[in-house]
Amino acid sequence: MFNKFLKAVLLLLILFLSSCSGGYGTKALPAADLSSQKKTDQLNEAIMSKAASRQRQIEDSYLIGSEDLLEIEAYNVDELKKTVRVNSQGDIALPLIGVINIKGLTTSEVEQLIAKKLEKYVEETVVTVYMKEYKSQRISVMGAVNTPQVFALTGQRYLLDMLMMAGGLSKDAGNICYVIRPTLRSNPDSRASTIVIDLGELLENGNLSLNIPVFAGDVINVPKGGVIFVDGAVNSPGAFNLNGKITVVQAITMAKGVTGTANLSDVRIFRENKKGEKDIIPVDYKAMREGEKPDIQVSENDIIIVPESGIKNFFSGFAKTVRGAMSFGGVSVGF
Questions:
Q1: Fewest CB within 10 A of the end CB: N or C in the chain?
Q2: Cα–Cα–Cα angle for 244, 245, 249, rounded to 5 degrees
Q3: Alpha-carbon distance 199 to 170, whole Å?
Q4: So what's the pLDDT on residue 319?
């Protein structure tokens, strides 16, 4: 009887200590922690999914060339489970099929080609082709880079890889570049596509989604930047390269600032519109410089005129009567 009583006391004591202890035993995660963990898992799944999808997109866009190594499988056709290298002519040799030329095709197009040739041997099959090694990429980089040339490469490359291999951008490079992609062999009537990349968004703002993969036959062209013109009451009037995004204050600074006789409140920008005419944009340079008004971004071929004090009426006559050309440091600009 006493033993039963003692066991009951011990059991109650254990239960009491377990309920009071905050440092022992297993504690359930708060609802907030569970929610956070679930969200993290979902983000990780999304990241993995996008990474896999991106790799497949790269393979689907890549044009196969000589020396590439492919892994090929076909459902119900064991003989076709092969790892083959494309020869210098763009050919591969496969059991049942023989020699086929696949140069300039994507992996998806090769899958379709093999499946079609297998129709007389099997009623239904699924062909998969994977890139094991990229060996044949020849990519051109031209324009405003320090070392323009054609590169023969192995492995998957991206836009920034190619710009770095070309020695980086030259001083007169513009703010965009073009990636010109050739037509697919499977569709000779298609036109080459051109992808426009904002280099400022990629390099300055770090938007890595613009760091696109490049493929065999791609041509990367970085055009030179445009020019702007600054004249009037500035210390060094002339034409200046428009590299990236430049504002009025920066443009006048490039012209070594204003003279002591400049009228800072009546600066004008002459900007060509879509009709081929010049719009006149009045600018209060003094208020911009002092931060009282927002600075204005200039555009290619803008003409910035800083007048001398006391000749404010110059602009109305200038806009109506000047025709022909103005000269800025030896560069003529038509009006």
A1: N
A2: 130
A3: 13
A4: 44
| pTM of the complete model | 0.47
pLDDT digits (tens, 9 = 90+) for 214-233: 988 899 999 887 888 999 99
Averaged pLDDT of the chain: 76
What percent of the chain lies above the pLDDT cut of 70? Answer: 70
In the chain, CATH 3.30.1950.10 covers 69-133
Indicate left, alpha or beta for 103 from its phi (over 0: left) and psi (-120 to 50: alpha): beta
Which whole-number Å values give the CA distances from 80 to 106, 204, 265, in the listed order?
19, 49, 78
Residue 186's CB is within 10 A of a number of other CB atoms, namely: 14
Residue 314: Cβ-neighbour burial (10 angstroms; 0-12, 13-18, 19+) = middle
Would you state the CATH architecture of domain 69-133? 2-Layer Sandwich (3.30)
- Domain 137-222: which CATH class? alpha beta
Class for domain 226-334, per CATH? alpha beta
**Does the pLDDT of residue 287 top 50, yes or no?**
yes
